[in-house]
Amino acid sequence: MLTTGELFMILDLHRQGLSVSAIARKLELDRKTVRRYIQRGLEPPCYGPRAPRPQKLDPYRPYLADRIRAYPGLSGVRLLREARALGYTGGYTAIKLALQELRPPPAAGFEHRFETGPGEQAQVDFAQFKTEFGDDPGQTVALWLFTLVLGHSRYLWGEFVWHQDLMTVLRCHVAAFAALGGVPRQILYDRMKTAVLGEVADGIIYNAQLQALARHYGFTPRACAAYRAKTKGEVERPYRYVRQDFFLGRQFQNLEDLNAQFRDWRDGIANRRRHGTTHRPIESAFAAEQRVLPPPPALRFDAVVRLERRLSRDGCVAFNGHDYSVPDGVRGRTVEVQVSLAELRIFADGRLVASHPLASTRRGRHFDPAHRRWPPPSAGERRRAESGATLLSLPGDRVGRRPLAVYEQVGAALAAGGGR
Fold this sequence. Notes:
Elements: H1 4-15, H2 20-27, H3 31-40, H4 61-70, H5 76-85, H6 92-102, E1 121-132, E2 140-150, E3 156-161, H7 166-180, E4 186-189, E5 196-200, E6 203-206, H8 208-217, E7 220-223, H9 233-247, H10 255-268, H11 282-290, E8 305-310, E9 316-319, E10 322-325, E11 334-339, E12 343-348, E13 351-357, E14 364-366, H12 379-387, H13 404-416
Parallel strand pairs: 1-4, 4-7, 10-14
Antiparallel strand pairs: 1-2, 2-3, 5-6, 8-11, 9-10, 11-12, 12-13
Helix pairs in contact: 2-3, 5-6
């Protein structure tokens, strides 16, 4: 096959008056090739498909087709043995490629749509979003959207959060139940680690704190089938809708502004539309479903997660990107941290030494002014505080404060007595 450059060279030499034989010798081409391209001119070369080369498997293709037509499930290894018994001398790859053409494609089954009754089920999941906040320009941050979708009405509740840890999951559940005014009888979860710890022969192992939440509110947790993303269709599809209809193309100052805009969009647009699958207005369907939702209990749920943390050099405990201070006297110890939905408490040797409101921002440092004294305690004072020792002082070790007139009287009395 000639290149475009060789074609132009043939035509140029022909215009210069060289004969076909001279051009063929100069370019080391066959004279018939040179003559053909001179006659064709600048018309691009046209190459037809090559005739298929004969293969060793060709005589056996009808046999393979008959066998596959009669028994579509026959394996390639078995058909290779049968073909070789008939005289085939080729390899397995040729058999496998032939079966890809001969074997009929599997018939795709119809999808079974699973609908739940009012108040029966909700679905919970997280999805990651990335954005830049106006308060921190040039810094891309990753956020998580927690969503709870009622299976019957498709009513959507959600909140953007910094983390998808256990306490965030529990807090979002509590907030969702309060916003819905009720609790579905069953909640379907993806196999996220904060909900599902594993699976054994007897069933699913759920997180103990999630089970405590379920007992308190009276719902049953259920894990979706492994590798079956369509099991959670009600909650998986809204993420694309949220991303396309709300998130893209918007500007947010911070997390609070993002959640405020999301609430306005969710209440004003998402939950007021007519759902594409059920063809019902979501808002009116939720009003009917809300009447059958069991109300949440009056007693407040407050889970406590216990962790072990080591104090930093500046006397702080780290949790979820935040530093929480402790008093000077407990520096240098491993402490127990108890985290609830709204508070973080720090214990040293079983004694409560500090408590802080649980932060909801991404990062931060939280210092209680009462935890630091100035000037800082000496090394001996810190050792005595850590050991619990009590310092016994002797009389005269400390001098009390007295008015200056007292000292003037003492000096006058000493002068009158001759310094005795």
